[in-house]
Design goal:
The strands form 5 sheets. The chain has a 5-stranded antiparallel beta sheet with strand order 3-4-8-6-7. A 4-stranded antiparallel beta sheet has the order 11-12-10-13, with helices on both faces. The protein has a 4-stranded antiparallel beta sheet with strand order 15-16-14-17, covered by helices on one side. 43% of the residues are buried. It has helices at 7-16, 66-75, 88-91, 99-104, 112-115, 150-154, 188-199, 229-243, 255-266, 288-294, 319-322, 337-342, 351-364; strands at residues 21-24, 38-41, 48-52, 57-61, 78-79, 122-128, 134-138, 163-170, 172-173, 177-184, 205-211, 220-227, 250-252, 277-283, 299-303, 308-313, 328-334. The chain folds into 3 domains: 7-173, Uridine Diphospho-n-acetylenolpyruvylglucosamine Reductase, domain 3 (2-Layer Sandwich); 177-266, Alpha-Beta Plaits, CATH 3.30.70.2190; 269-342, Alpha-Beta Plaits. With 376 residues, the protein is of the alpha+beta class. The longest helix is centred in the middle third of the chain and has 15 residues, at 229-243.
Amino acid sequence: MLRPESEAELSELVAQAAGPLAVQGGGTRIGAPAKDHVGLSASGLSGITLYEPGALTIVVGAGTPLAEVEAALDAEGQRLAFEPMDHRGLLGRVGTPTIGGVVAGNVSGPRRVSVGACRDFLLGVRFVDGQGRIIKNGGRVMKNVTGYDLVKLMAGSFGTLGVLSEVSLKVLPKTEMTNVLCITGLTDQDGVRAMSQALGSPYELTGAAHAPVGPDGEAATVFRLEGFESSVQYRAGKLAGLLGKFGQVEIETDQQKNQNLWQWFRDVRPFHGQGGDVWRISVKPTDGPGVGHALQGAELIYDWGGGLVWAQTKPGFDVRTRLREFQGHATLVRANEATLAKFTTFQPEPAPIAAITAGLRARFDPRDILNPGLMG
């Protein structure tokens, strides 16, 4: 495993590489490196370079542990608003998640429905491309990008265009109170209808999820409200009235219980330690129940108002052929070696998009040495 301790050393290692490199941070996220690739870890590029709480900005080395970043923000009453999930339990891996891994995977949690994804908070990046060139784009404020927006391009590229060395992020203040409304016993269809109505209301939800089998063993449809105490209480009352036609609405005010509940959904805890394949399916929220019906026999969790469907299936089950009537994509997050040999991790791209992707890779990694084959 190559572990550079500086950006200059990273540049030199990539420039001198004679073959494929398996780029990773803490090795805790999706995508298994090929056995013949040389491991390249960015974990040595660690540390908070600049943190300006008043400017809501933090600049950190890509290898900085996510927990270290979150602790520094918490001490100032701030947070990463996009609440990245922890993949370790789902994938059965150990290690230390890094902020670079979060950015490379554009890892975004339940709050995406209200604040956006990781890429929406990414202000600037420094990275080393496949030729060993050090490239900087963006900065420490919004809307300062000139030319190509490489900042957004790097978010979700999974190390196939460059190895991140430093990232700049916008952060937000933590909220004073969280209330969670819950309706039990709804079908998937009614759960998504309730979530759609709630998200379309003026009550500013920061989460809407549904589990056919919730933490207490029965179907649970949950809605999150955050903000100042008086505002949250007012909106919770109004939202409970709006949702009353779907069933009895319970309002939970215990902050620790609410945090645990949303981590349950965020980290897909019901699928931890299981033997099946896990797929992450992104579709229109209104198509979520249809996807669930098409995958009869799968265990399901709906997030993002129904637009994100987590499915645990029997090993080797071909999810993508069941989803042809739906617009969206399915990512194979967890599987055994036989299934991984059968399916690609990421949804194959349509020909026009694949041509653009190939052109980008040829530009940034002409030798095809950075995580080759990972994204098709």
